[in-house]
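Model the whole thing, not chain by chain.
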Amino acid sequence: MSLRIYAIAYLIFLYAPIVLLPLFAFNDGTIIAFPLSGFTTKWFTALTDTKALHNAVQNSLFIAALTSVLSTILGVCAARAGAMYNFPLKRGIIGLVMLPLVLPEIIVAVSLLVVVVQMLHMSLSNWTVIAAHVLICTPFSIAILNGAFQNLDPSMEEAAMDLGESRWSAFRLVTLPLVMPGIISSLLIAFTISLDEFIIAFFLTGANPTMPVYIWGLLRFPGSLPIVMALGTILVGLSIILLTIAEILRRRGMARAGVKDKGSFL
Amino acid sequence: MWEKLTATEGRRGLLMISPPLIYAILMLAIPIGAIVLFSFWTQNFMDVDTTFTLNNYREIIEKPIYFALLQRSLFVSGTVTFVTVILAFPVAYFVSFHVPAHRKSLWLFLITIPFWTSYLIRVFLWKVILGYNGVVNTGLINVGLIDEPLTFILYNVNAVIITLAHAFAPFAILPIFVALEKIDRSLLEASEDLGESKLSTFFRVTLPLSMPGLVAAVLIVFIPTIGDYVTPELMGGAGGKLIANMIQTQFLALNNAPLGAALAIVAMLCVAAISLLFVFLNRRWLRGRS
């Protein structure tokens, strides 16, 4: 019983900052502190007339969309290879691909920065951010897709090939539909991570900032904080919707693959 | 050609893993090799002098500021790890042992949600919670516990630790939960049947068997926290800056990328050494598991 109370208190601790967001987003005052002064939606209207924000959002959506597709493709390759084949150096190779999961993000950021700017003498752009985001999102995609690929019976694809399908069409017609929920879940998670990522984007973003980099700039100006709160409220709402869909699909994918749901993909 | 590539299972597997592998080599292994190389070069006003030198490392050893920052960073990461793992263990234990099976996913989902959303704004909101007119101070004054707002909870190392412990909470819970789930429940019954109390069963059976998860949780919190510069920047004030802030400053503001690279490598080596030592000290708990 006391454990349950502790766990609920812990959840409250986890959600404390997020719960505050809408309070200040709808608060009619420029200072982000208590007491609250009154209800307003003007910070949300202010969001719609900030041109620089729109550009940043567009950039981030572009980066997140491409990142999610690329990291999911790489994730499918790795999860399929990991689940269905034995090959030389398997553990080492998978370990290298999964390494960004534990590597401090600043290391990924500075090492790519050095290569791009100092060694290749190229300029930073959305593409440098995408390159890094694909790197850090791929391990998450693999973790999600592992759930879908493991316990997938390889004999089903073999049966399709025995019946005259090529290796690729056997994959497309048999395996792909079975792992589709996992794929969509991976797309959504990678999209959410990329959209929210700041530490790497701050180093690698070009002339056009991503949304978190833009928010970082706003955090310095006390006057723009309520707008940040409004933006944050929208983002949290959006992320929760995306994550809920991802979770439902992930579970459906596990069920299709016939795996007992162990609860989480990390 | 194609037939040759796909002739054996090993080759098909390698072919399948090659896109993510090549990507990881190009975008991770080579760039890390590049900063190692780069750290032996020097910044010469606007361009980089590519003669091999240990000057960057010498500067790091000789100037006390770098040592102090590194020491503080390791202390913060260590404390955050300790606090996070200690606080997370009971939650993982609760979800694994006391939540009915069909509810476990929901609990884990609830635990992970805050972790995915608006990292920057979350860190910023801790300022609102811990600040002079913040939630904690207003609340405590209203209740009558304090007369003056507490000032030791913002713009110092404490604030950095609280915020980081919050940010990494799910990272600590999940590996511990996975380890606890793997424990064969009949072992616990056996222990109690043989006369151990619930408490001694926990310390002699459950805890040792959950050690792989605890070790994983420690590493997955300890290693990435060293690279966070957002939290110390927003929460740390003047005395709470960490090594990652210095790396960032060297790269972006001071335009001394080689020194920044050397700092990044020194920080990584310290973290790696401590992690390996930690795994080594816990080796007896990790044995016999694949």
